[in-house]
Amino acid sequence: MKYCSNCGEKTGGKAKFCGYCGYNIASSEEGKGTTEFVIASSSKRLLNLLVDYTVGALGGGFLVGLLLATIGLVSGNETDEFWTFVGCIVILAYYVSFEVIWGKSLGKMVTKTRVLMQDGSKPTLKAIIIRSLSRFIPFDAFSFFGNKPVGWHDSISKTVVVED
To answer: Residue 23 falls within a domain, yes or no?
Structure first.
């Protein structure tokens, strides 16, 4: 079993990043000749969130609402719960589609960051779905503020956000 030399937590056998603190394990191992990745800062993660929720959630929600109204599927008497459900579906579809196709959301395109698996590989569809669903955990958006810029949705899905 390997341990992170930064925080001492156990890491997976092939992991290039610590799932707890985000430390780049691969770059700290001598003689490995691996590509060095830099974990995205908390400020970049916050900007990602703001761009994604402004453009992706609000913009996507507006377009979905407009489409539903245009084709007659909504009457204006829907409950708040209905629109909350629609919003969750829009956010889930936004993150899954962008991160599966490009490995980054619009926010990550702006900040020049991307999502990788902890072993440095391209994220799998399963990991992106888990990552996207994990965003609905209350206060997840604030989980990367602290001494480690790794959010709960990162550690649960075994992904990291790195500089491009």
So the answer is: no
Please report whether residue 112 resides in a domain.
yes
pLDDT of residue 39: 86
| Cα within 13 Å of Cα(164), Cβ side | 13
Residues with pLDDT less than 50, the chain: 1, 30-34
DSSP 95-162: HHHHHHHTSS-HHHHHHTEEEEETTSSPPPHHHHHHHHHHTTSTTGGGTT-SSS---HHHHHHTEEEE
| Domain total of the chain | 1
Given this model, what pLDDT does residue 31 score? Answer: 44
Taking the C-alpha atoms of residue 56 and residue 89, their distance in angstroms, rounded to an integer, is 12
Residue 127 lies in a domain: yes
For residue 11, is it within any domain? no
Q: Identify the burial level of 152 via C-beta atoms within 10 angstroms of its C-beta, where 0-12 means exposed, 13-18 middle and 19 or more buried.
A: middle
pTM of the predicted model, to two decimals? 0.74
What distances in angstroms separate CA 111 from CA 45, 49, 94, 102, 145, one per listed residue? Answer: 8, 11, 17, 14, 17
Domain holding 72, by residue range, is 43-157
